[in-house]
Amino acid sequence: MSLFISIVFFIFYVILYVITRTYSGKLNICLRIGFLLSLTFLFLITVNFFYLHWYILHIFLSTVFVISNILLFVGFSKQYREFNEEIKRERFSKIELKDVTKFYSTISEERDIKSFFKTLTLESMKLIRRARKATVVFKKENNALGFCFAYGYNMGELGKLELSKKEFILSSRVKVVHSIAKMDKELLDSKVYEVLEKNGILSVRSTLIIPIIVDGESYANLNLDILDEEDFDKRDKEIGQLISTMASSIISTRIHARSVSNDLAFSREYVENADEGMIMRRLSGEIVFVNDNTLRILSAKREDLLNKNINDVITPFIKRINDEVFFGIDKVSDKQIFEWRKGNNHKKYISVVHWTARLGNTFYVFYILTDLTKMFRLKWLFHMFSEAERVFSEEKNLAAISNEFLNIFMKYLASDGGGFYIYDNSQLKLISSIGCEALPSRISISKDGKDIFSRTIRFKRATYMDKASIKVDEQYLQGRRGSIVCLPLVKGNSIEGILVLFYNDIVSSEDLDTMESLAKEISYRFGILAANLRLKDTYEELVEDVKDASRIFKILIPEIAPRMGWFRVNSRFFPFDIPQGDYHKVFAIDEENLGIVMIDSGGEGVKGAVIAIFIDKWIESNLVDNISIFYEPLKFIEEINASIERELSNNVSKKLKICFALLKTSEFNLTVAAKGENWEYVTITNDKVTLVPLKSKVLHRSRINSKEVFLFHTDGISEHSEINNLIDLASSIESESLFSGITTVAEDQILKRLKDDLTLVFIDQTPPYEMRWEDKVLYANIFDNRLYIVSNFARNFLDEIKRKQPSLSMSKHYPVMIEMITNAIEHGNLRLNIQKGSREYAELYTKRLNDPRYSQRQVQVRAELEKNSVIYTIRDEGEGFNWHDFVTRVPTPEELWGIQGRG
Question: Is 633 within 8 Å of 672 (Cβ atoms)?
Fold first, then answer.
């Protein structure tokens, strides 16, 4: 029996050893000892059984064998259990790495912030199994901290708490905090302490803090708690870091996407209802958005533009207008106006404004398109009618009048030549011609003739042919490679004559329609009063066109006036149904002087718009070529009045009312001159209102004191009592500023009875920068990009630091601060990459200060106080440059001796 048991144990150990031979450690050693022990006892029992036959030895060996195997089995079982635990831990590590993808996809599915944090907490506790409870603390919109989710705690009570920065600081790194109960009770609000203690948060032994980072700052903390003696290990912190990275990535993307979505939703609602066209493209050129008006302006389909490169579908069909258009009235080359022409029968004039902006992490280029074709045609009508009046008023023969009309048509319709025929007894008789000497003097018209003249007479409408379509009429082109237009002059039901125009190019259908309309205009006047009759017959159409012109006119009125130094200028234009000729412009003359122009032209609709365009262009031109007149208000008024009289008419000049104010910001002085009657301005100081009348062509000087407001206006506020009532009403309503209140009251009260435009310009003092402390960090925003304010700002900024920390010596900081801020303005915000001190630099500097794309940029300055030092951070809003290559390369000898670029 003993021999049989020994053999069984031997076989058992052999099998077990073969199965577990790859195992290492104590478990493998136990198996080897069991195998050798069973082999030894089997040998002894076999020898005794067959040879010695000692009964007592047999019993002893069997007893020892059984006891040793029992002890060995107990040891083996213990080692096997430990081995199993090790296997489980290894398997858990493998599952943890394998489940990262599942963890990420699970938390990514949540769209709501609270649902996201709930799922994040529960999934994190599956990965870090030591955690028994958890909370999520996040930053609210008011910058206070609060609990967003709690597991194992009463969220109903915790959710009502608001934690200040004194009570709780969001961690920006993964860390383990021990013994929360040691928190100083005095730092916590009594109510907060009571709720935390009641929920057992102060009894937590260890907390693993996992931060969620957004834009470099801690947005929330996931806190995993352990209540017993166990503690988080290094592996848990590594998992926590992984959770932090993934959660931060998801929540950052979610927040940015929500911001972009809100911006795009607002922008889409605005641009879809706008009168202008809008195109949005990527930097690569791919068009990603067009609104309905763009399709109308370009006569295109959405699928023709979307997802196409702008250089393929738009750029080839536009050309810049570089010459003076409309003969001294409007030099549009600086207005970015283009001619859009696609195919032979589509031509329009379009104003294009573009800028680059970032939505989320992507940059886009935006284009605003304004269809100016109607305005151009209105201008043609305006000038042609004016010149037609002059022609008809002169006592000349028919040939002279015809020749004058030919000149007018060729001038405004860009014709290369033409002729004027009168029609009588089926005959066309040439009265005058320009550039077409070979035109036949007489042309016989047949009833069924197919030539261009016969068809014009028969159908009584404009007829057009180009080289490709002309067969029987080729002789009339005289070898030209262009086209011919015949315009009938119809009076009632009879043909008075034909106007023939030749072009070297193809004529668009839009231009042909315009020509036919203009021919109809002078058809009546050709009998003496055609223009007036045409205006009466087409009154409703012209009113609509005038309204279109009025909308374009409003574009000239500035929406944002520039601020300069310690002065802020706000303006508001209230148009009548059809603008009555009010126009104003606020502009920088140089770094320290601001110009304010207010005009009442006495014209309405198209006439007022044309005068405003002329004045706007005149100011822009003289800022470059004749800037000295802006420093003498009386001379400015004389010059602009003379230009209007010379370029437009004496009648326009007589009706013109103009006010010009020169604001010297460094001297706090205001110099005003006016032309015309009823000009005045209002000063407001400590609720005291003073009306200052302006005499025509007399200089008025005033000093703008602190907390004093100057209000300039055109029509509508003419009595002192009315102004007092206006100020009182404005002060009584809830508004962010006096100007906002005044404009609200003016819109509600004055415009109801006023049948004229109203313009308000508001000047007051306000620092060009602001500063604020947050703990030991001083923040400042500089709103003005004029260099002369830098010195004052640097002095006040450093004085503020000195008051906070008197032990610091600031004397060496001052020149460095000035240099850094100057660089931020010059090379960052204003992008002045021209040699300083040159004329080109000065011109570009002034131009950028008048361009809202550059002048509205700000400089942010941050000073972080440490024990014996200050860390400054200065940021501008420019495009930036590759500074790394610049500072690492070796400078050339010329650069070493230059006045810039040496650091």
Answer: yes
